[in-house]
Amino acid sequence: METAPSVDGTEIAYERHGDGPPLIALHGSAATGESLGPLVAQLAAEYTVVVPDRRGRGASGDGDDYSFDREIKDLQAVVDAVDGEPVVVAHSFGGLVALAAAPTLDISRLVLYEPAVTVASHRTRR
Q: What is the reported pLDDT for 13?
């Protein structure tokens, strides 16, 4: 297990699998990186798959702040720990985080699977 320090010092734990171009696989809200095991096994045949545990989950530190902005900074820390411009594959709430972070990340591609949506973005105006 490796770690990347987020901007507030919280250690974001991640594992590497396979050998090839970098790819970060980001899990959803009620899970850990381990939940992506079958996907990681397939992708590791062609990529170096970096699988973080999001803040407060699995082997990652708890930290004091669980804001959406902090989750974006945590993903930035993992991207910074990877050599090259990774593909980011993200699921559920991880997909929402990755989508929001993408404009500021040095990544080659973004792949989202069932990304969460914010309620505020779907409210109708009166």
A: 98
